Amino acid sequence: MSDSVSSSVSDPAPAVADPDFWSRHVFVLFSSDAIHRGVHTDMVARLRKEGFPPVAARALHADPELIDDLYADLIAGQWQTWRYRLVDAVLTLGPAMALICRYEGATGAGSGGGAHDLLALRKGYQHPEQAEHGTLRRDFGAVNSIVGLMHSSDGPMESEREAAIFGLTAADAAADPEAAAAEIDYLCQVVTPHTPERRDFDQVLATVRTRVVASLWEGLPGEVRDGLRERFPETARLGDVGAGAELAALLAGHAPEPLLAFLACEFEPSAADVMRMSVAEQALRGTGVVLDGWERVVLESSLHFQPLRASRQPVR
After folding, report:
1. Is 99 within a domain?
2. Helix (H/G/I), strand (E/B), else coil: 45
3. Which residues partner with 268 through β-bridges?
4. What pTM did the predictor assign?
5. Domain final residue pick, 168, 191, 214
6. Which residues of the chain have pLDDT under 70?
7. pLDDT at 5
8. What's the DSSP call for residue 12?
9. End-to-end Cα separation, the chain, in angstroms
10. Chain segment 18-48, per-residue pLDDT in tens
11. Are strands 2-7 and 96-102 parallel, antiparallel or unpaired?
C-alpha cells in the first residue's frame, strides 16, 4: 500500500469493541476510474442521501498486491490471467478511495434486508448495461464490470476483512457526523484530478475514430470527404453502434486493411476473437494515433465485458 491520504477525524469512535459494528457499517471502495472521472464527490453525496453516510475514508494508490488480497477468493477460484491485467490497468489511472459507510436506517426483519444487502441494491448490478436506472453504477456511468466505479462488501465479516486490507478499522469511524463529512468532503477535493475524464464508452470510440479520420483527411479524395460529412455531420456520432462499419466502408481503398478492421470493431465481447489490443494499437500507430490511458482501459476491458452503450439505450 502506498501514497495514502486518510480522513480520520480527531475524535474517532470509542475504542471499546462493538460486536454489532459491521452489521451497521459497510466497506465501500471507489475504484480508480471513479476518481479519474471526478464523480467520487457526487457519489459520496449520493451515499448520504441513500442513508449510508461515510464516516471514515482513505485515498491511496492501490498496488496489485493489495487488490490480490481484496479479491483473493475470486483469484483462487475463477479469475483468468487477462482479468489481472485489466484490473491492474484500471489502477494506473490514479488513486482509489476506501470508505466505511454507516447505515442509518433499520435492518433485520421487516426492514427490507441488512445494511450490506441494501447497499448492494443501491450500488446496482455489476454489469452496468443491466443495472437499473437510479442505481449508482448506472447513474454515474460505469463503463463495464471492470471499469465499474465501485465495490462494496457482501456481509459484515467481509466488510471487516476488506476494510483492514485498506487500512481502516472500526476505530477509524468518526463519532461526530459533521466532522466526518467535512473531512471526507475535503479529501474528495484533494484527490480530484485537475481535468477529470468525462468520456463514456461511445465518446471514447468517437474520439479515437475522429483522430483516425483527421490523420487520413489530406489523402482522401473529395467524394470520400463529402461522404463522411454527409453521413457523420457530427463526429460524436462516430461512436454510435454500427458507425464503425459504415466508416470503414467509406474509407475502403483509402486506408490499410488492419486500420479498417480497427475502425469497424465495436470493442464488445463479440469482437474478442478477432481483435486484440496489440493489433489495434499497431494499426493506429501507422497513422500517428496513440491511445491515452483512459482510451486503452475502456476499449480493452470492453472486449471482455459488455460496455454500457449510450447509443443503444432507449430514449427516456
Report:
1. yes
2. helix
3. none
4. 0.87
5. 191
6. 1-17, 19, 64-85, 107-113, 314-316
7. 56
8. B
9. 43
10. 769 999 999 999 999 999 999 999 999 999 9
11. unpaired
- What is the amino acid identity at position 122? R
Question: CB neighbours of 256 closer than 8 A, spacing ≥ 6?
Answer: 283, 286
Distance in angstroms (rounded) separating the CA atoms of residues 127 and 142: 9
- Which residue among 132, 158, 191 closes a domain? 191
Phi, psi of 4 (to 5 degrees): -100, 150
* Percent of residues in the chain assigned helix, strand, coil, to nearest 5: 50, 10, 40
Are residues 78 and 206 both part of a single domain? no
For residue 21, the one-letter residue type is F
Kind of pairing between the strands at 54-61 and 150-152:
unpaired
Q: Is residue 196 part of a domain?
A: no
Domain extent at residue 302: 201-312
- Judged by DSSP in three states, 112 sits in coil
The pLDDT, as a whole number, for residue 198 is 96
Instruction: Return the half-sphere exposure (C-beta side, CA atoms, 13 A cut-off) of residue 150.
Output: 31
**How far, in Å, CA of 169 to CA of 163, rounded?**
6
